[in-house]
Amino acid sequence: MQSGTLMKDFDNIPDLMADIGRRAKAAAIELSYTTSERKHAALIGAADAIWANREAIIDANCEDLVYGEEKGLSAAMMDRLMLDERRLRGMVDGLRSVAAQSDPVGQVMAEWDMPSGLHIKRVRTPLGVVGVIYESRPNVTADAGALCLQSGNAVILRGGSESFHSSTAIHECLVTGLKQAGLPIDAIQLVPTRDRAAVSAMLTMTDSIDVIVPRGGKGLVALVQREARVPIFAHLEGICHVYADRDADLEKARRVVLNAKTRRTGICGSAECLLIDWQFYTKHGPVLIEDLLKAGVKVRTEGELLKVPGTTKAAPEDFGREFLDMIIAAKLVDGVDEAIAHIRKYGSSHTESILTENDATAERFFQRLDSAILMRNASTQFADGGEFGMGAEIGISTGKMHARGPVGAEQLTSFKYIVKGDGTIRI
Q1: Alpha-carbon torsion 169, 171, 177, 179, what sign?
Q2: Residue 395 lies in a domain
Q3: Cβ-contact 175, 185 below 8 angstroms
Q4: How far is CA 140 from the centre of its chain?
Q5: Cβ atoms within 10 A of the Cβ of 1, count?
Q6: In this structure, are residues 28 and 209 in contact, taking their beta carbons and an 8 Å threshold?
């Protein structure tokens, strides 16, 4: 497909989006009763198509990388945008992993008998049509398409302008899988324009979209949260904390802290603040800070930690900031309760990790914090649906209604009640 075709302009965006919505709604009806075998076939077909067309996808991605450089994207955003054969293999593996999961649609969540003679079952059912608005990451095209299909939902994908060519190439592979399985191609639709008016239209399509999932920076998510009339699953920021407790194992702490910050700085599970217990610091010194500095991380801190060569003074806003870069805020705290208080004040309810060998301290941390994901002796970089056994994720939700944490296929379902009687009447 030529770039000129991809760059097609549409004179009437509201009409375009209304048509996409109508077709998605019709496809969702069929998907709601599609067999597990056909969904499995579509996902495997899509995975095979991506691998067979990997060179074309990487070529398309090169166009996006050039566009991203011209647009002045940060190094972290360019990393999110970039595709290579290894990442495409991960995409293919993710599709196959989702396909291998049990079909959530129709699963019995609970069932019971009533004295009236009724037998009641609560069963999983698709949400309907999911709208996904995302920036830079072309892999979201495959992840969201797969998870929505597996959960019996149609999906409308609106990728970022930076990933337009990559997302289009990946979407064509998903459509190939749908065709091979005899499923409606409107089950997975990609908005065919970079025009921002398409985003505004999606946010108000209450007649055809059942939920919106934004995947991107704070600006995008804030816009969606502010203007959407459709329900949303979202997190505004990933301000993730790692707390090194006085009873932490030194070597475990060194591994986890370094990985939590440096493995990939541009993802929402990257650690943005390190809290160190004073007793840990007194016993082991500034080793955690020194490890970060040696790895090239800029450490912004205050008080005693400023004595460590290479650190810089933190501004007040650095605590509670999502850097998405090789930068971390660091602070000494007096025990787990002070760490909890700091996280409550500055966190975003995304992911927090405690490093400790003390079971009681870990339990206190888990009980008194209410972030979507709480970890012990593990890197915050594991805040990912794939690492949770979901095959992939459509996003992380920090809200408390319906879905929370990584949103996989099961979280993209609601439920209905099936009630059976035998001429049963209410007295």
Answers
A1: negative
A2: no
A3: yes
A4: 9
A5: 11
A6: no
Q: Are residues 95 and 220 in the same domain?
A: yes
Q: Are residues 334 and 412 in the same domain?
A: no
To 5 degrees, how large is the angle CA 187–CA 189–CA 192?
165
Same domain? 305 vs 381: yes
Q: What are the mean pLDDT values of the chain's consecutive 10-residue runs (427 residues total)?
A: 48 93 97 96 98 97 96 86 96 95 96 95 96 91 96 96 96 98 98 93 96 86 90 87 98 98 93 98 98 98 97 96 95 98 96 97 96 96 89 82 86 92 89
**Residue indicated by tokens 């009533």:** 114
Instruction: Tell me whether strands 119-126 and 129-134 are parallel, antiparallel or unpaired.
Output: unpaired
Determine the pLDDT at residue 114: 96
Domain count, the chain: 2
β-pair partners for 354: 243, 376
Residues 352 and 283 both lie in one domain: yes
Looking at the fold, whether 210 and 246 belong to one and the same domain comes out as no
- State the CB neighbour count (10 A cutoff) for residue 419: 11
Backbone angles phi, psi at 416, to 5 degrees: -140, 165
Record the pTM: 0.82
What CATH number does the domain containing 361 carry?
Answer: 3.40.309.10
The pLDDT of residue 8 is 56
| Cα–Cα distance for residue pair 5/3, rounded to 1 Å | 5
71 and 220 belong to one structural domain:
yes
Which pLDDT value is given to residue 357?
Answer: 97
DSSP H or E run through 417: strand 413-420
Q: Letter for the amino acid at 177?
A: G
221-222-228-232 Cα dihedral, nearest 10 degrees? 50
Under 8 Å between Cβ of 176 and 45? yes
Give one DSSP letter per residue of 192-221, joined into a string. ----THHHHHHTT-TTT-SEEEEES-HHHH
Residue 31's domain comprises 8-233+407-419
CATH code at 40?
3.40.605.10
SS3 content of the chain, % helix, strand, coil (to 5): 45, 20, 35
